[in-house]
Amino acid sequence: MAKAAILETPGEGLVIGEIDVADPMPHEVLIDTKACGLCHSDLHFIDGAYPHPLPCIPGHEAAGIVKAVGSEVRTVKPGDHVVSCLSAFCGHCEFCVTGRMALCLGADTRRGKGDVPRMTRSRGSGESEPVNQMLNLSALSEQMLIHEHACVSIDKDMPFDRAAIIGCAVTTGAGTIFNACNVTPGQSVAVIGCGGVGLAAINAAKIAGAGKVIAADPLPEKRALAEALGATHTVDALADDAANQIMAISGGGVDFGIEAVGRQAAADLAVASLRRGGTAVILGMMPLDCKVGLSAMDLLGGKKLMGAIMGMNHFPVDLPRLVDFYMRGLLDLDTIIAERIGLEDVNAGFDKMREGHSARSVVVFD
């Protein structure tokens, strides 16, 4: 039995309940969850903006200790400290073999209709019902049962709460800088939205040696966090002349405009901030009816638009490197974490996220 935060009805918050977790199948890993960051992507499902089979357990930004492994698992072993990642990879599809692991949709890493339920809960009278897994992980639970290609072993000296946020926010934000954009020293970057993902992108841009790192957010406290993490300049994202301010600061536009909040206006600002030949990168989960585009003049100026799901990571390699960056004092994860809470306070944590005034809340299980 494991305690978990269960989504039963979108818009009505999460319910704390007990679930039964099966023993690992050949390629599965059973993990005692130690910490899980609260991510805005979860909120899209919790509030009903994105559909998902119910009931289910959200949470996808986690770290823990391997308790047991399936008979074919070779990448981790019991006792290993691990970080999970929602972009599980099969290793043999077109995307994996061409180095685009984050785009993998390999069926063998995901549970399909008709599969034996791996998580269930009692409904009384001796009956049970399946509990669906969200985003390959379902980490807001005392235990996770996941595919071996959805986690990676890390240094045991790494604190679990800081390791957890590497699993999504930092992998997405830093991965965008290092992988999707391949920022080189001296290039300019604008980050629109200074939540966990945006702050990680700003910190990574500093590590990469970006010349100007411009943070745009409507909240002064978020802009202050951005400065602490390496922003050279800040702009009120809701100012009428925000794009013009970024243009002036960067001397004609930025090389990379990164949208990290999931709003149409933020994406439009990322595009409007570009120099000739610049690239806008959309990271946030926007409403499903949103569209982002380039004008004819943008195209004539060689501007580009792209998505970068999960920072286009290669997480078995990237995550241990990010842990090493933290351990050596290069990556600042402490500033990104606003609070540590218990599982019973998860709904209050998501309420705080809706208010938008602080960075990451992390559920700590011990």
Describe the 3D structure.
The chain has helices at residues 40-46, 94-97, 160-180, 196-208, 220-228, 242-250, 264-272, 296-300, 315-327, 346-355, and strands at residues 2-7, 14-21, 28-37, 56-57, 62-69, 81-84, 119-124, 127-130, 132-133, 143-147, 151-153, 188-192, 212-216, 233-235, 254-259, 274-282, 304-307, 337-341, 360-364. The chain has 366 residues and is an alpha/beta fold. It folds into 2 domains: 2-166 and 312-364, Medium-chain alcohol dehydrogenases, catalytic domain (Quinone Oxidoreductase, Chain A, domain 1); 182-307, 3-Layer(aba) Sandwich (Rossmann fold). Strands 3, 5, 6, 10, 11, 18 and 19 form a 7-stranded mixed sheet that branches. The chain has a 6-stranded parallel sheet with strand order 14-13-12-15-16-17, sandwiched between helices. Strand 16 (274-282), helix 8 (296-300) and strand 17 (304-307) form a beta-alpha-beta unit. Helix 3 (160-180) crosses helix 4 and helix 3 crosses helix 9. The longest helix is centred in the middle third of the chain and has 21 residues, at 160-180. The radius of gyration is 20 Å and the shape is globular.
